[in-house]
Amino acid sequence: MLVNGAVITGKGASKGRTAEEIDQIRAVLRGRFDDLSAEYEEALAENHALRLAEMGDSAGDDQADSGSKTAERDAASSLLRTLSDRRTQAEHAMQRLEDGTYGNCEGCSNPIPWERLEIFPSATTCVHCKSNRERRAG
Ligand SMILES: [Zn+2]
Prior knowledge:
Residues 100-135 form the Zinc finger DksA/TraR C4-type domain. Residues 54-89 are annotated as: Disordered. InterPro entries: Znf_DskA_TraR (IPR000962), Znf_DskA_TraR_CS (IPR020458). This is TraR/DksA C4-type zinc finger protein. This protein is an all-alpha fold and 138 residues long. It has helices at residues 19-56, 63-99, 114-119, 127-137. Helix 1 runs antiparallel to helix 2 (63-99). The N and C termini lie far apart (53 Å). Zinc ion is lined by residues 105, 107-108, 110, 125-126, 128-129.
């Protein structure tokens, strides 16, 4: 009995990107950028509505009420920040794609493994440099 239910296709580390791959990445990044822009606009509108609602009924709030509103507002603004960061990242990756520097680590300039780019198309650093940066930042 052969056990080969899972056929692995397209495996084999490809060195250098083909034009098709680059087109594919560009489409993925563009789609991601558009999605993030839409999400950002939506979150922005929600945030705005939240603020308006807050202004409207701030009179007679009890402590618990205003506490949960603060939490809601914090969550909304951290979402905005996250979306904005991701959008910038996608934009940055597209820029690098045009420059021809896409796929190379910004830290050590080694090629970023294709497997990583498939999962995180906007990654601009390899896993090692990413964790180094985070360690420094933290
Ligand atoms: Zn690196």
